[in-house]
Amino acid sequence: MSFHKKPATYVSHVHLLVQDLIKSLSFYQDILGFKTLERSENQVLLTLDGKNPLLTIEQPEGVLPRQQRTTGLYHFALLVPNRKELAKVLQHFIDIRYPLQGASDHKVSEALYLADPDGNGIEIYRDRKDTEWQWNSDQIVMATEAIDVPDLLSEAVGEEFTGLHSETIMGHIHLHVADISRSQEFYGALGFEAVSRYGSQALFVSTARYHHHIGLNTWNGAGAPAPKPNSVGMKYYTIVFADAKARSEALNRVEEMGFKSEGYNVTDPSGNVIKLEVRQNG
Q1: What's the CATH number where 221 sits?
Q2: Residue at 3 is within a domain
Q3: Which of 282, 135, 117 is nearest to 209 (CA)?
Q4: What is the pLDDT of residues 154-199, one digit of tens each?
Q5: What tens digit of pLDDT does each residue of 85-125 get?
Q6: What DSSP string describes 107-164?
Q7: Please, what's the b/e burial string for 241-266 (b: 16 or more CB within 10 A of its CB; e: otherwise)?
Q8: Which segments constitute the VOC domain (predicted)?
Q9: How far is CA 188 from CA 134, 203, 230, 240, in A?
């Protein structure tokens, strides 16, 4: 089953604020292989397959450096189609000596962690087959273990990295929030179910029994404030619903619970802005 097509509800696009558009564009194009889909004076819409937008980078007027100890983006996660593609990415980072922040085997996936020039967190990962995942009742079994690097790199022998594969998608997003319980209420209203917990400080939610479409944590501190609107970080991200009816029902639920909305834009309890969309082709 695909966890990023109908009938699942999933994350599809992230809009970032950066300090230097040219420097940021160079990173996403030259290091990761993104292509420009649309461009204006202060922002660029990026794609990997030439048609579907995955990422927007924007340099707002009066941009401020990334603020610490706030809510907002922890990382966005790019899902490559197979293990060979992840191996090619890792070999590429080794070849150009780009610093990684981590490399983990999560049982359901294998992941590489890094940051862009502004410190915006990025995960690049591949999923194991869902038939290999383990569930304990309604909770997915995940862990954070070391990747077998030599074994992974063996997949890339003789392969050349020419950019992230065109079938790479936005697999999930992980957010800093102020309150786990309140966040669970909000994302539950949008239709996401809790599938994994790490004590009282982290929660993972999904639809269609994916290991997680959204991660939530209070690692920047319970009650952390939202960042200033023009500071480096995430401006908003997009959630795609199966159809207009599902989106309207979700919007009605969050409005009935008293959460802020404007059109099809909603703001979670920690100040993270979300665009609710319906994509006709899945």
Answers
A1: 3.10.180.10
A2: no
A3: 135
A4: 999 999 999 999 999 999 999 999 999 999 999 999 999 999 999 9
A5: 999 999 999 999 999 999 999 999 999 999 999 999 999 99
A6: SSEEEEEEE-TT--EEEEEEEPPGGG--EETTEE----EE--HHHHHHTTTT----SS
A7: bbeeebbeebbeebeeeebeeeebeb
A8: 10-127
A9: 23, 12, 29, 15
